[in-house]
Design goal:
311 residues, alpha/beta, Arc Repressor Mutant, subunit A, D-Maltodextrin-Binding Protein, domain 2, 3 domains, 5-stranded mixed β-sheet, 11 helices, 20% strand, elongated, DNA binding, WH-like_DNA-bd_sf, LysR family transcriptional regulator, HTH-type_LysR_regulators
Length: 311
């Protein structure tokens, strides 16, 4: 079986598949050759080469013409799929070159989704409905691995503190303000001025260690003369964080302010008036160094420039 597969992969040609389809459509070698712009003898030779490759006859001659046998039916079915796939590939390439189609895969940290990613993707999709768009929301570390492997075209995130920064090109976008939040059902905190000390007994939902927001929270607790809560829950998932806040009466977390504002509008969290002193995090566009961007990826970055977001 492996030898047959290797032989087919090495010798199979698109012209042979097209001839099979023409024979199935017209039931005549003469007519199929005409459709293929070949002589009948040349078409006969191509058919015999294909039958030699698979080791069986593919057609039977009858009064109504050349009729595929069970082997022929199977091969014709797959030939149609392969020819259709090649045609779709050619169309995709043409669409990508013209900027009308193709695929755009973007990675993004949570804080960039509401005001950076969503508006531009909505604009792109409304004007290029044939463009397939994929958005992966994750931590910068995980997104960088996807970017390096070519699984995403670009990412909106950070490279500060990451290994192998030379593999990537970074264009800063903007700072990421951070807010302290609790669930919307959290009992009201009556004090006019709140500090982290007022939340020292809360159950904190934090990012895993060594991640920027985890480090920021450690600095804020240290500045307030507090130790990090021993009973915290660590997760990099925004869904887990939001769900735990929404379902708890004593949980707190740091969230990017844009994300926190979005969920506050939907009455899922409440932003607390706690002033953070640590420097705001900056994020930007990250692409592979020396890599060639697809037209959709270039257009996405240009739209960011048009919105005066790229420094």
């Amino acid at each position: 079986m492996e030898k047959t597969l290797n032989t087919l992969m090495a010798r199979l040609r698109l012209k042979q598949l097209q001839l099979l389809i023409a024979l199935d459509d017209h039931k005549s070698l003469h007519k199929a050759a005409g459709v293929m712009a070949m002589t009948q003898s040349a078409a006969s030779k191509v058919l015999h080469e294909l039958e030699d490759m698979v080791g069986v006859a593919l057609f039977e001659r009858s009064k109504t013409g050349m009729i595929p046998n069970q082997y022929g039916h199977s091969l014709i079915r797959h030939a149609r799929l392969m020819v259709t796939g090649v045609g779709a590939l050619c169309q995709d390439i043409a669409d990508i070159r013209s900027g009308k189609g193709g695929r755009l895969a973007i990675g993004s940290i949570m804080g960039a989704v509401p005001d950076v990613i969503a508006p531009i993707l909505n604009w792109l999709h409304s004007r290029q409905p044939a463009l397939t768009i994929e958005v992966v929301e994750d931590t910068s570390k995980r997104l960088l691995a996807l970017l390096e492997d070519g699984k995403i075209d670009l990412m909106i995130g950070r490279i500060a503190g990451m290994d192998d920064q030379g593999k990537f090109r970074y264009q800063p976008l903007c700072d990421e303000p951070v807010s302290v939040v609790v669930g919307h059902g959290h009992p009201p905190l009556r004090k006019k001025e709140l500090t982290l000390r007022d939340l020292k007994d809360h159950r904190w939902v934090v990012y895993p260690s060594r991640m920027p927001l985890h480090t920021l929270l450690e600095r804020e607790f240290d500045r307030a003369g507090l130790s990090m809560p021993a009973n915290h829950i660590a997760t990099a998932s925004s869904l887990v964080t939001i769900t735990l806040l929404e379902r708890s009466m004593d949980a707190a977390a740091l969230l990017p302010t844009e994300v926190a504002t979005f969920f506050e509008k939907h009455r899922i969290v409440r932003i607390l008036p706690i002033q953070l002193h640590s420097k705001q995090q900056t994020f930007g566009i990250v692409t592979r160094s020396g890599g060639t961007l697809s037209p959709p990826a270039e257009q996405f970055i240009q739209l960011l420039r048009d919105r005066n977001m790229v420094h």
